[in-house]
Amino acid sequence: MKRVTTLLSLVLLLSSTVWSQQRYLNEVFANVSETQNVRFSTQVPQPKKGGGWYATISAGLPINVKEHDTYNRNLYMDIFQPFGDTKVKRPVFIVCFGGGFVIGNRKYGDIRDLAISMAKRGYVTAAIDYRLGMNVFDEEAALRAVYRGVQDGRSAVRYFRANAERLGIDPDQIFLAGHSAGGFISLQNAYLDRDAERPAATRSTRYRWKGWFRSKSYNLPDQGCLDCVGDNKHLDGKANAVVSLAGALGYLEHIEGSTDVPTLMFHSSNDLAVSYGAKQPFKIISPLVLGFDLPVSYGGSMVDGRARDRGAPRKFYSYNRRGHFVHVKGGDISSFFGSVLNLGHLHTDVLPRISQFLYDTRLRPAGFGVSGATVVRLSATNTQTYTADVAKDAQVQWQVEGGKIVKQVGNQVTVSWNTPGEHTLSAVPYNTNGAKGNAVKVPVLVMDNLQELKADLQMYPNPSARVLKIKLNEEDINEVKAIVYNERGQTVYQGSLQKQGTQFNLNVLKLPLGKYYIKIQNGERMLHKTFLKY
């Protein structure tokens, strides 16, 4: 018997642990499956390496590419999915590596850690490659390298939209994240979203390419529109939210306002590679490289300031001692090699903050109301039907105190109230992807004949913007107790009201817009009504 009791206790403990975890916020899956080398972009133009002195001493890094001389290549991603997951319409989290557009790949340890950890939270994730190669000796030509990355990031978004049903994902919940150059890609995806915003250097232009002993001017072809390179060009490559880790933006004026997608940024003020403010990237090494010429970029603090001023949805986490690897433990050098060697360890605050931001801004079911009787008299009918105003494909979990659920169909529930008193009906929505919304708690007063306030309650104006006027026909009542609840059942006002002339006045000016429940009580007698604040 003792053995059975111990086993039962263990099962209950494990069950409570599982239920305490929440999909998309916590790692609810122990394992993920990985599909490697998935081609998402076919035959895209890649500039050839330019060689030269600096390319030689930098072990062949493409820092002097020939924008005028290209070849075609394919791009690949590794896809991670929660092992054993049965959900459909899951959100997607795409991660882009860092490396200044001249080095790096999707196998970096920090990138894989981000992708795997988010997959364990219930996302379908991907670590992607994009085209490398920049001309660091020509400010205008350098912009073309960033634009290539932006096009490739959008191509990855389009791949998931094109394969949404096969992969069991939601094409309207695709998020793009990246570190350093990958952060540039994600921020540009959010704000550089119209062809008119493209830098002039991405169109047909000329530039002077410098070789070993000579330089020559070349005509450069138009790089095409944002979604004109790669596959699935008929789809939109803009993500639904972005995350930037030490990234930057090329033009602050691209931040427009409330219609921009939600943006989450992490940046440290001691970043020596990508400026926290407004500077040329790699400013610390530029004096050491003759002819080094990159455009000014705008880091996290500048993007946050502009977004705040324009009312664009954003969240900014600012640090002062994390360096360029704002998301990885250790100094910049150790973080870099740890990332390359797949030894990097993420700061413990990064993943929870990413998860919470995406959950709050994109995944959590929107606020809703519940309609139905909030005052029930046992002497009349004690069976009432309530309706939750949720999305058509959402599911609702109902809970009731002081009554019994007798029927539930879709977003409606029928409750049999059987006990006099103040009770609560709660509704919790779940989207089809499993994301849980906030509970709405509706106070329900169940009365027998002895509890009823023998007065007619009149409230005007209703809806009300400033003062709700309450009039009781019983002239001898000069003071009442008033309690106001919001739609979640939270008390937002409680106090006594003194009669002013023939009525009681309740100031509702500071209440947020919405629906409210008010209880008027005189001794043991009370009434419940609803009103709207606009």
TrEMBL record:
<dbReference type="GO" id="GO:0016787">
    <property type="term" value="F:hydrolase activity"/>
</dbReference>
<dbReference type="Pfam" id="PF20434">
    <property type="entry name" value="BD-FAE"/>
</dbReference>
<feature type="signal peptide">
    <location>
        <begin position="1"/>
        <end position="20"/>
    </location>
</feature>
<keyword id="KW-0378">Hydrolase</keyword>
<protein>
    <submittedName>
        <fullName>Uncharacterized protein</fullName>
    </submittedName>
</protein>
<dbReference type="InterPro" id="IPR026444">
    <property type="entry name" value="Secre_tail"/>
</dbReference>
<dbReference type="InterPro" id="IPR049492">
    <property type="entry name" value="BD-FAE-like_dom"/>
</dbReference>
<dbReference type="InterPro" id="IPR029058">
    <property type="entry name" value="AB_hydrolase_fold"/>
</dbReference>
<feature type="domain" description="Secretion system C-terminal sorting">
    <location>
        <begin position="459"/>
        <end position="528"/>
    </location>
</feature>
<keyword id="KW-0732">Signal</keyword>
<dbReference type="InterPro" id="IPR050300">
    <property type="entry name" value="GDXG_lipolytic_enzyme"/>
</dbReference>
<feature type="domain" description="BD-FAE-like">
    <location>
        <begin position="77"/>
        <end position="197"/>
    </location>
</feature>
<dbReference type="Pfam" id="PF18962">
    <property type="entry name" value="Por_Secre_tail"/>
</dbReference>
